[in-house]
Amino acid sequence: MTNLGEYLAKKSVNKSMVARKTGLSKARINELTMTTTSKLRLDEMYLIALAIDTDPCEMMKTLCQDLRLAEE
To answer: From CA 4, how far away is CA 22, in angstroms rounded?
Structure first.
């Protein structure tokens, strides 16, 4: 499961509802939540955040919390 998948599971979000509200296909939502090699685009994340009534900035901070700058 991806970070997005875990995030949505913690919030008990219905993926079909997200697909319907965002206009993303159910297949794309499943790919983003189950396939660790999938890449979540900014526009997709923003639409998902709006669909689940979450602040997009808070969602981004949670999903990207493991990212760090390269050390020099």
So the answer is: 15
Location of structure tokens 């159910």: 26
CB 63 within 8 A of CB 54: no
- Please give the tally of structural domains in the chain: 1
| pLDDT at residue 56 tops 80 | yes
Q: How confident is the model at residue 34 (pLDDT cuts 50, 70, 90)?
A: very high
Taking CA atoms, 57 is separated from 11, 49, 62, 64, 65, in Å, by: 16, 9, 9, 10, 12
- Containing domain of residue 9, as a range? 3-53
Does any domain span residue 69? no
SS3 assignment for 22-44: HCCCHHHHHHHHHCCCCCCCHHH
